[in-house]
Every structure is written in C-alpha cells, then in structure tokens.
Specification:
By secondary structure, the chain is of the alpha/beta class. The chain has two domains: 1-71 and 150-249, Rossmann fold (3-Layer(aba) Sandwich); 78-147, no CATH class. 36% of the residues lie in helices and 24% in strands. α4 (131-143) runs parallel beside α5 (161-178) and α6 (189-195) crosses α8.
C-alpha cells in the first residue's frame, strides 16, 4: 500500500531524513521508532502529501504521492479538538469538509461513537471529558470518513501509562475488526511491540533505517498479558539494543 524509495528530506542545510526505503503492505500495522527529532513525523507528513521530499519517492497504492493524499487519515500527537464543539460536532468536521449530507453524516457519527466507546457522550464538550476520552474523540474523527490507511504520530504520548494502555487496547480492538493499514510513530518500545506487525528503527538525524524487526506475536493480543511474557521481554531487549547507541543523553 505504501512504497518509500530512497526518501530524503532537508530543511535548508539540515538533513532530517536520508534515503529511507521500506514498504507497508495493505492491512499491515507498522511502527516507526527512533530518537526525538530524527524525521519520523516528517516522514508521515510526506506520506500524507502535506510535505514533499527533497529526493526519493513515495507511492501510495502504486500512485506517486505529489499532492494531498485524501485516502489516508492522520492523527497527530497534538490535541486538535475544537473546544466550542460537542463530541458529535467535532467528529463531524471531516464529513462537513467533504460535503456529506446531514442524514448520512449523523448515521456515520453515531456508528463511530459506538465503535470507540463514547456512547452517551455525543453532546459533551472536550472540557467535560477525560484525557483518554478526548483521544477517543480524535480517533473517531480520524476514522469517521473511513480512510484506507491511518497515519498516527504519537497519538497517545500525552496520556498517563494506565490511560495509554486502555486506549491502546481500544485501538487494537478497532484495528482487528477493520484491518486498516497503519503507520504509527512512537517513542515507546513497549507500545511498538504491543501494537505492530513490524517495527522500523531509525538512527539519530539524519535519520537512516538501521533495523526492521518482525513482531512475531500471535493476534489478537492482550496488552496487559503480553507484556509479562518472555517473548515480549526478548523483543524489548533487541529493540533497545538497536536504539541504545542512537539516544543522545
């Protein structure tokens, strides 16, 4: 579904990403991990078409990405809910932009509210919700127009560890049903192992791909149970060894 070939990106004299090459299959969940500032978010921006590479190419479903990619949904690390809009009206934004009529828009919003576990909160405002619930609203807004692929840039990084586990479980449940293609940026090794089929490890800037790990753990996954297994511990150790030398203290 996504084909990245010799992809590089520079900002003036600063090279953020250097000749990255990888593919993501349809329905695959791939995590990107590496030191802060190594170009992972920049890579998502290029896959979405929000930013163009300095050199190299990105193809989505065989077509060159040279403009905004409307077939993907993008959930960023920043909270982007509109405080003056209710949960339902926040979720409605992408459908309004696309000109979806009121009746089908309402039906789609009702379905996605149930999917993400927010039944009963449609009329609430962001200030009335917990951090985990606000993240669910952002996820619902990303999913409501049914993008083929999800680009997720540390979407749960701001949550405390317990809330993060709960929302990760929700994401896995939704993904197991939909099997959308996912490209997921994280700094959390445990999160990458728990969620992904493969983990791509980047070096410090200029980011190069240093390793790709296959997460050969059975699905469906119970994150709480999984993290206590020897297999998880071994994968965590291997990932950390790949990253240790890239972390600047």
């Amino acid at each position: 579904m996504i084909e990245v070939t010799d992809l590089s990106k520079s900002f003036g004299e600063i090279e953020a990403l250097h000749e990255a090459t990888f593919t993501v299959a349809e329905g695959e969940f791939v995590a990107l991990i590496g030191p802060s500032g190594c170009g992972k978010s920049t890579l998502l921006n290029m896959v979405s078409g929000l930013m163009q590479p300095t050199s190299g190419t990105i193809r989505y479903d065989g077509a060159l990405v040279d403009e905004i990619n409307t077939r993907v949904g993008y959930m960023t690390q920043n909270e982007t809910l509109l405080p003056w809009r209710s949960v339902a009206d926040n979720i409605s934004v992408p459908l309004e932009i696309r000109g979806v009529a009121k009746a089908p828009r309402r039906a789609a919003i009702d379905r996605i509210i149930e999917t993400v576990g927010l039944t009963g909160f449609a009329a609430h405002y962001p200030s009335q919700l917990s951090g985990g619930m606000r993240k669910r609203v952002q996820l619902a807004r990303t999913l409501v127009y049914e993008p083929e692929t999800l680009l997720m840039d540390e979407p749960f990084g701001s949550l405390d560890p317990l809330l993060k586990l709960v929302v990760q479980e929700e994401l896995l449940r939704i993904w197991e049903t939909s099997r959308k293609t996912v490209l997921y940026v994280t700094h959390d090794l445990g999160e990458a192992i728990s969620l992904a089929d493969r983990v791509i490890v980047f070096t410090r800037r200029p980011a190069r791909i240093s390793a790709i790990f296959t997460i050969d753990l059975p699905r469906p996954r119970d994150i709480g149970t999984l993290r206590g297994t020897p297999e998880f511990a071994m994968l965590y150790e291997h990932l950390w060894e790949a990253l240790r030398g890239e972390v600047v203290v």
